[in-house]
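[Discussion] Sanity-checking designs against the backbone

I'm trying to build intuition for which residues belong where. Below is a structure token string of 670 positions. I'd appreciate it if someone posts a full sequence so I can compare it with mine line by line.
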């Protein structure tokens, strides 16, 4: 955008400086003429040439309303924006009705650049519309004149043939490039546009061949196209290149034979339309698409790195804390460990929510939408939150639906939404309060799940801020934990499942949050129960023993695994710091279980897993992925390559121990 020229009606120099700085920070360069009185405003209007007018509403000796009236009289097409700290909504709407383009409050100055851009775009559109209307009027006038000419020509029978030829030539000269050749390739006719395209006068074209007018290689190509038209006996559309004085131009060529009464070709006609600009636009769109794809890949790589780099140190923090939790500790030490675990889990929740929001914005969120029993999943979520509610003296009432309600949702993500709404209803409730959960048809082919509390409620002025990231509405000054991301993420997850999430609230009475999802009649998939063969008859006890190979380059993660395996004395740990050593040690030692990290110094963990899978001997060794990369698409892809499990760092130590027990158990007869 070129440098703007702005007339600014403002009596405060600091406010004027702030406007100039705000526009500059928004990428708008402008020459601003500031005035603060009627006389200087009128004088500035007389000079003209302003792209935009900004006006304060109230000034000591002048006002924005009068300024708007003056500007509307002398410069009706110049955008006029009120920039004031005192204008109310009713006054602003009135000014907009009277022709103002927009209004911006001074305490919302950050909106100014976008308002200016929008005003300029609208002004440009109006100008283009006026130009188009004028062009239509001109064309209508021209058409009317042609009709008049034709009527007059018809009245003059003696000049009918000459007039007809004149009109035909006028049409030709206002058309795209048109030419006619005889069957030997010599030009019989060329219009004005073809004359400009060839770069020679019309008299120098007639009777010549392409070889005499154009470079040999291009001329041969035109002749080859003519031969194809004659051979096929029908028209063809193709792209042809012409060399003009200002460079290379690409034309859409329509070539077809002219037939006599016996349907035999006697000449060749060509209509050529310059599509050079369209080709440039197409190329620019292709480049833009490639850039967008590259940016998406870069964002995906960034999410992967962020997930890995943030989760790796948390793995050590939470992992060693879990080991301490399992140890025999005194009350003070156990409280300290609990604080470490609580803080670590809070940080992990923040990381997960930030990355989930980033995935949604990048379009990388993976969803598995299926029919879900709304009553069942609500009941499960309520049971998970009941201990938290009981600890705070909060009662939870579940209003069961009248009949089963199946909804289309991702079960895991819907459970995430419900747990957020329920935990908020408990955390922000009053002592001895109540939470009511309901499931009902909304009457629009959707099912509404509502969570109501008896908390202090949310003032109407703050409801608009509720779903903004990191906005806690002052709760950060209390002792209630939170990240300010839960509701933002919940709403975006609901929208990703083609649902909605909203809220209604009464101050001092409580709030109701609800999520609506599409109803479905499809049958709900049933989970099948699995059996553990190890405890089938009760006559054996598991004893864990064997060799575990850990392919990991981070020493703190290796040290954590050593400490975990101290709880299983029969298990020996081997460590490989890179992929090549891991593959070699697996061949030599044949471990009973391999733990594999995905980010290794010499090759990716995926490549290591692929080599295991392609090797008939190594394929028999069970491999579990332990990675800080929490992207949802990874587990399914890696399990397809043979991984038996995908555990995300920070690790759940009990889950790791259970996996080791499951794979390395040795039945011992009693």
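Best answer:
Here's mine. Compare freely.
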């Amino acid at each position: 955008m070129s440098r703007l020229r702005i007339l600014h009606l403002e009596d405060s120099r600091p406010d004027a400086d702030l406007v100039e700085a705000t526009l500059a920070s928004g990428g708008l360069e402008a020459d601003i003429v500031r005035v603060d009185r009627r006389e200087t405003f009128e004088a500035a209007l007389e000079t003209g040439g302003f792209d935009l007018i900004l006006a304060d509403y109230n000034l000591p000796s002048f006002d924005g309303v009068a300024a708007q009236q003056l500007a509307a009289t002398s410069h009706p097409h110049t955008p006029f924006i009120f920039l004031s700290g005192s204008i109310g909504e009713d006054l602003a709407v009135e000014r907009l009705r009277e022709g103002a383009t927009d209004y911006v409050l001074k305490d919302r100055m950050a909106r100014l650049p976008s308002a200016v851009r929008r005003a300029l775009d609208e002004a440009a559109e109006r100008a283009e519309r006026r130009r188009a209307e004028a062009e239509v009027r001109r064309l209508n006038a021209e058409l009317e004149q042609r009709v008049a000419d034709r009527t007059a020509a018809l009245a003059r029978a003696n000049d009918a043939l000459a007039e007809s030829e004149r009109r035909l030539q006028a049409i030709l000269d206002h058309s795209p490039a048109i030419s006619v050749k005889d069957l030997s390739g010599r030009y019989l006719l060329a219009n004005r546009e073809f004359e400009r395209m060839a770069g020679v006068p019309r008299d120098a074209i007639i009777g010549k061949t392409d070889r005499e007018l154009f470079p040999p290689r291009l001329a041969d190509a035109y002749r080859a196209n003519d031969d194809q038209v004659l051979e096929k006996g029908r028209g063809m559309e193709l792209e042809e290149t012409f060399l003009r004085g200002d460079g290379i131009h690409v034309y859409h060529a329509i070539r077809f034979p002219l037939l006599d009464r016996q349907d035999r070709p006697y000449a060749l006609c060509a209509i050529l339309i310059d599509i050079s600009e369209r080709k440039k636009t197409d190329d620019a769109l292709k480049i833009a698409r490639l850039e967008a794809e590259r940016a998406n890949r870069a964002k995906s790589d960034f999410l992967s790195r962020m997930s890995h780099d943030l989760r790796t140190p948390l793995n050590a923090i939470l992992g060693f804390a879990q080991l301490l939790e399992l140890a025999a500790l005194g009350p003070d030490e156990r409280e300290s460990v609990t604080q470490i675990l609580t803080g670590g889990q809070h940080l992990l929740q923040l990381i997960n929510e930030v990355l989930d929001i980033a995935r949604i914005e990048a379009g990388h969120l993976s969803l598995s939408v299926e029919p879900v029993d709304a009553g069942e999943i609500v009941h499960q979520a309520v049971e998970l939150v009941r201990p938290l509610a009981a600890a705070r003296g909060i009662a939870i009432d579940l209003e069961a639906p009248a009949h089963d309600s199946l909804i289309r949702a991702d079960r895991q993500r819907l459970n995430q939404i419900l747990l957020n709404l329920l935990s908020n209803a408990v955390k922000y409730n009053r002592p001895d309060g109540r939470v009511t959960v309901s499931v009902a048809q909304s009457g629009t082919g959707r099912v509404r799940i509502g969570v109501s509390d008896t908390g202090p409620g949310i003032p109407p002025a703050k409801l608009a801020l509720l779903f903004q990231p990191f906005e806690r509405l002052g709760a950060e000054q209390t002792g209630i934990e939170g990240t300010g991301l839960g509701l933002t993420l919940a709403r975006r997850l609901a929208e990703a499942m083609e649902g909605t999430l909203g809220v209604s609230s009464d101050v001092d009475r409580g709030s109701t949050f609800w999520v609506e999802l599409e109803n479905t009649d499809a049958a709900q998939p049933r989970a099948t129960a699995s059996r553990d063969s190890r405890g089938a008859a009760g006559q054996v006890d598991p004893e864990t023993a064997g060799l575990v190979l850990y392919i990991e380059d981070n020493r703190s993660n290796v040290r954590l695994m050593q400490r975990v395996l101290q709880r299983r004395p029969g298990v020996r740990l081997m460590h490989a710091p890179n992929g090549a050593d891991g593959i070699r040690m697996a061949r030599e030692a044949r471990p009973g279980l391999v733990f594999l990290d995905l980010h290794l110094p010499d090759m990716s963990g995926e490549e290591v897993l692929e080599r295991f899978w392609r090797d008939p001997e190594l394929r028999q060794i069970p491999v579990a992925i332990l990675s800080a990369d929490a992207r949802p698409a990874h587990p399914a892809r890696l399990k397809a390559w043979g991984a038996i499990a995908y555990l995300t760092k920070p690790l759940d130590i009990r889950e790791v121990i259970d996996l080791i027990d499951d794979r390395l158990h040795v039945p011992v007869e009693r």
